[in-house]
Please model this.
Amino acid sequence: MQNYTCSLNNAGGNSWNISAFYCNESECDEITYVRMTFVVPVTIHPQIMQEASKSTEAARASHAVANNVGALGKSHPAVRPVPVQRVVGSASETYEEARKEEIDHTWNEVPKKIQLIKQQAIEQEKSAKDTTAFYQAAGLGSYALHQVIKVIYEAVNKVQAKDHVFFRAPGNPPRKETTDGPQRFLESRSDSSSWKDHDERDSLMSANIALQANVNSSAESSFDILQSGGLFNVDKGKMLQIIGKMLKSMTIASDIQTEILAEVEALGNAIEDIGLKSSTKESVLYQIFIPNDLVSQLVYIAQTNGHPFDYKYLFVKPEKILAGITAAGKELKDGSMESFGTENAAKYKEIDPYEEDEKKQAEDNQWKVTLFRSPEFTTRVLHAAKTTSFWLALKGDMEDPQARILMHPDHFAPGGRVKTQTYPNLTESTSTVLQQGLEKIGTAASKNKSTETPPGSGTPVEWGDFHSETPSGSGTPVEWGDFHSETPSESWADLSMFT
Model:
């Protein structure tokens, strides 16, 4: 049986987009993705949508009508619709339009299931209101660990975490600078010549600002990692280490800990067997939505290793980013954006990288720090990224600008304002194995004897409220900031992948 999906989106004024695609229930056997844009006053009757969703043939027919294509497939240019100004929308969609040639060259045989994930993610991004989407991909082991921690959290606390993804473990303490914003965080870190985001696994998340961004750099591309099965992953030993430390922090009775860990090990063995026996690269895509009013508090624009653009190693040319902002301002007829790009590009061009005068060098460096770490630069880039002009200006560079996200404990908690959409790329058999293993882990964890109602009786457990009663009656409940590992490499935050 085949399922058909058709969506209608207003593109501004009298302009409408219709998108249609379909796949089989078990997997995407074939996908047809059709977009039609009506740019003249029209009335979209519900029956049109109903017919368009029945089959791709109907979608193609509607497409032909919208573009005045005759029975022989010939178009009539004299009466074709007049192009209209793009209304700022999805960064992932504009990236795909601007960099299509590079995308087709790099990923010329994308599995159909990945194509469907891409289409769903872009549609989700376009429909999200007052938020900005960021992307990160991980391997099967990482996805399994995220699910394990969620199952234990729900079973022990008798709550539902719904769609929450535990990029950080309950109890894993944030560094203070994580809650003070990007400027303070960078001020405390990036003066060191050896600093990189790999040192910040319990504080910082790496993400792309468009789904297929970094098409020319596989190690920095979420979309490439989604197809390859994850650049960074978690094996059975690491999973047991992380879960073992977390269970101790929750003061769950030792016999129950042993039972939980036995089930975790069994699941780890099953996942390792899948990896050995299957040639399929299984993975997960995370689409992270941050409310626009939080973006400047949590996000800064970065290059490889999390370095801001005042840093000495430049994988993306800052002048190209500023040119992209200028071009986006022109496309959007946004004078303030255009001026921001133009004026700062002119100033940047004046800076001599070989300046010998120490005072002038210090002044230039401070100017770059002030600009490239500012909330305005971050918001300008993210807004400009929703235009094709921005991405066209960056063509030819090795990499595209990325984002680094501070995992603020309040906003990354269950019930917090940062939301995540999850797109597993798993076979049916792997999904079954994972689900069976998680059910056994949940059953073991639910045997914990904690019956105390968490703070805020009757409400879901909040990030800072997370605790588990000490079975022996000694000790204290575990708070968010009480759990930590002896070494950073053993922390739950290893799950925050770097792309």
